[in-house]
Amino acid sequence: MAEPFNLDHLVSQVQQYLEGPVRRPKMPFSATLNGDGIGDGKGANNPSEVELILYVSSSPRCVRAIDTIKGVVSRFPLKRVRLTIHDLSMDPSQGVEDSISYTPTLVRRRPRPRTFILGDITNPEIVVELLQGAGEEN
């Protein structure tokens, strides 16, 4: 008699094979980077700020997205761009407000309209265009 087939286990093995070993980001599950350093992850308080939320998981693609976005944000005025990073692998409920079901996802909440970038966020020009579209110059 054969044992039951565990499809979830097979999918996770294939995903690990395709993406490589999992390396967790070196950020707490929710952190905010701005001119004041690490904040409370609650979002922008200044209406003239650009508010970015990056939703990640523990995949290598998300780690690369974090590195790319941090590099781009560091080239802009620190007091004007607020980046919050939420690790959904540690707390999936953090993605409810923006209806996030895929990582990595970068959301520009402010200024409006709310803008989403899904998937491959390793090209810094995409993030630069998003910030320049919000009126920021580097």
Describe the structure.
The protein has one domain: 3-Layer(aba) Sandwich (Glutaredoxin), CATH 3.40.30. The protein is 27% helix and 22% strand. The model is unreliable at 24-30 and 34-44 (pLDDT under 50). The chain starts with 6 loop residues before the first helix and ends in a 5-residue tail after the last helix. The protein is an alpha+beta fold. It has helices at residues 7-19, 60-73, 124-133, and strands at residues 30-34, 37-38, 50-56, 81-87, 105-110, 115-118. It contains three helices and six strands. The radius of gyration is 17 Å and the shape is elongated. The protein has a six-stranded mixed β-sheet, covered by helices on one side.
Strand content: 15-25%
- Tally of discrete structural domains: 1
Low-confidence stretches: 24-30, 34-44
Order of helices and strands: HEEEHEEEH
Main sheet record: 6 strands, mixed
CATH-derived architecture: 3-Layer(aba) Sandwich
Quick summary:
By secondary structure, this protein is of the alpha+beta class. The chain contains 3 helices and 6 strands; from the N terminus they run αβββαβββα. The longest helix is centred in the middle third of the chain and has 14 residues, at 60-73.
Topology diagram in text:
Blueprint: H1 7-19, E1 30-34, E2 37-38, E3 50-56, H2 60-73, E4 81-87, E5 105-110, E6 115-118, H3 124-133
Parallel strand pairs: 3-4
Antiparallel strand pairs: 1-2, 1-4, 3-5, 5-6
Descriptive key words:
alpha+beta; Glutaredoxin; elongated
